[in-house]
Amino acid sequence: MLGKILSNQPQLAAFVRGIQPPARQPKIVPEVSIYKCTPPERLDSRARTKKWHHFIEWGEKQVKGYYNKHMKQKIKNSDRQTANMIELRAISKYSDTPSSKDYVLRDIDLDVKEGEFLSIIGSSASGKSTLLNIIGMLESPSDGKYNFCGQEIRRLDKSRKNEIRSHFGYISPRYGLNRKLTVYKNMETHLLTGDLSVSERETKIVDMLERFHIAPLRDFFPFQLSQPQQQLAAIAKAVIANPKLILADEPTGNLNSRLSKGIMELLKRLNRGGTTIIQATSRENTAAYSNRIVSLNRQGGAFASN
Q: 3-state secondary structure string, 206-218?
């Protein structure tokens, strides 16, 4: 009986099986980012279960009613989402002294859209690395508000922050490599959360090592590498898992001009593919690869620069 009904109602059959309905149905507005969404496999499972119960118990009319309600709720949720991946409001970072506050950053306002390539440029001690660490949730601001994909970071627990950070790629002298692991194991840690088999992980790591010309260094520890080699290994680790956001602190700082150009062209290609990139640099030629530049002065204030 159920099969006969479905055969006469192709639209209903498509709905029950979880297949995309015809084009005339309301179009779901795409989610701004994966970070706010229920994992698709869990959402699909619950939705399909509810669809079957509505169909069996209340019939075709009620199923369509549930479907329309479900669609409207998804559109409503999407409308509430912000267009910005990152929003910083009045962010300050300081250390208290007996007589005053020693500011590293003061009242920073910054928006970063998903898919943008942004450069934070400034001289030494201007606070650009600190700002990058705050965006990457490696440090907490002293004052101000930080929203990531519509979620206020200070309200999130540690496990939720770790979940978000798992989608980040860090290129940093301080946070790039785990000094207790070999180059190979460092890169493997970024692939363990996925569904790749051991052989698939090995193939991907070997390919990345060869692309960066550091394949002979796979079993070396970071302290056994030169600074340029450490830099290349950190960049390879950062990009191997196709992160949604790359945070690069002086990504070409220890590299010669030829390698620097290659790394910046790689980051530019990743950005064209949809990866959001924020780099901190003191080099104008490196910053020129980005779509937008934010400058920091020595007092920690930020202003936009074309």
A: HHHHHHCCCHHHC
